[in-house]
Amino acid sequence: MKIYCFKKDLKEAVLICERISSKNLNLLILNNVLLDAEGKDLKLTSTNLELGVEIIIPAKVEKKGKITIPADVLNNFLSNISGNDKIILEVKNNNLEIYTNNNSTLIKGQPTEDFPNLPKLKPDNKISIPIIDFISGLKSVFYSCSLSVIKPEISSVYLYSNKTEMITFSATDSFRLAEKKLNYFFLDFGPILIPFKTVAEIIRIFEGKDGVVDILFNKNQINIQKDNLLFVSRLTDGIFPDYNQIIPKKFIADAIIDREFFINSLKIAGIFSGKLNELNVFVNSGEGFLTIKTSNNEIGEHLSKIPAKITGGNVKITLNHKYVYDCLPSINTKEIILRFSEEGKPLLIMGVSDNTFQYLVMPMSV
Fold first, then answer.
1. Mean pLDDT throughout 232-256?
2. For the range 340-344, what are the long-range contacts, defined as Cβ-Cβ under 8 Å and sequence gap of 24 or more?
3. Does the pLDDT of residue 186 top 80, yes or no?
4. Where are the domains of the chain?
């Protein structure tokens, strides 16, 4: 193999591949990136058997061939060389030699026969949506996933739609739940469960890109493709909770407040919250504000009054400060509404005049 390519293209591709590659002491081949030169392209592949990525970059191929080399070594090398847009890669005696105007480097390679193939799906189940919307849907809910692997079904983002409903993204850790709907009808999608770690990589890889992304899936795998980049992942095998039954149907009080004012108030309150992130919330129907209070035995205490349009009765509830704050970047409206239900039931948070996002947070028992 001997090719010529631009350092910028190679560096960006290797950076993604290095993140996906495994740090496996038993299967050393998974620590590598596969370089495969043929035609007018260089294809880079890495996998840890749970996730995988394939990236094609333009190259002048003087001699085709392939090799696998440690992904972290190649990434560290490319990250630290300066200047010189063009770079030469050549395989000699199963080693990769890299040449620039100022560098001559040899990286020892391994045989390619043991490198696993990525599972590529047929377009039997496929949808195409703008990347910006797909990433927005994931980011609106994924922070609500459980970080524990004991129940993998709630350590995942749940996606589904049918020909009469919008695409729905949901996530829960059993203490809070986030749901985001995208206005795409007539798409039959899912249901599927995307593992939390996979979602984090999807956001990292595709956020900021333009255009449309193709999503292919079956019961066990998902493929996400955009131009010269293919991302593959296993899906979670499980059943997501039927959360519709826990969404309150009756509310005893509503408070409409300015979103930015609430965010700033929560930031200050968070300084004084206790070890359990307790946030005490008070609603008085005879007053024009919502009160939040936090206290910490070692630091002090804080009380903030937030102007509010209140309807209904009086409420006193203790919530997890972090859980309340987490959902606010997912709401795009100027005002939000806090809907309080009966004692022991969850608080519902939504944007005013926006039915595409809703967030439930359970009260704390203190």
1. 94
2. 340/251, 340/252, 340/253, 340/254, 340/255, 340/283, 340/312, 340/315, 341/248, 341/250, 341/251, 341/252, 342/248, 342/250, 342/252
3. no
4. 2-108, 126-243, 247-361
Q: Indicate if 247-361 has the same CATH topology as 126-243.
A: yes
Count the Cβ atoms, other than its own, within 10 Å of residue 270: 16
For residue 281, is pLDDT > 90?
Answer: yes
- Domain 126-243 is in which class? alpha beta
Q: List, in order, residues 6 or more apart from 168 with CB less than 8 Å away.
A: 158, 159, 160, 161, 179, 180, 181, 182
Give tens-digit pLDDT for 196-235.
999 999 999 999 999 999 999 998 999 999 999 999 999 9
Residue in 54, 39, 28, 38 with CA at minimum distance from that of residue 108: 28
Residues 208 and 170: beta-carbon distance below 8 Å: no
Average pLDDT for residues 94-112, to the nearest whole number?
A: 92
- How many whole angstroms separate alpha carbon 116 and alpha carbon 109? 16
- Bridge partners (DSSP) listed for residue 336: 257, 351
Q: Where are the beta strands (DSSP E) in 269-353?
A: 278-283, 289-296, 300-312, 315-320, 335-340, 347-351
The encoded tokens of residue 330 equal: 């997912």
Asked if residues 76 and 70 have their Cβ atoms less than 8 Å apart, the reply is no
Phi, psi of 90 (to 5 degrees): -140, 135
Best CA proximity match to 311, nearest among 356, 259, 255, 355: 255
DSSP calls for 29-66: GGGEEEEEEETTEEEEEEE-SSEEEEEEEE-EEEE-EE
pLDDT value at position 127? 86
CATH topology of domain 2-108: DNA Polymerase III; Chain A, domain 2 (3.10.150)
CATH level 2 (architecture), domain 247-361 = Roll (3.10)
Q: The pTM is what?
A: 0.92
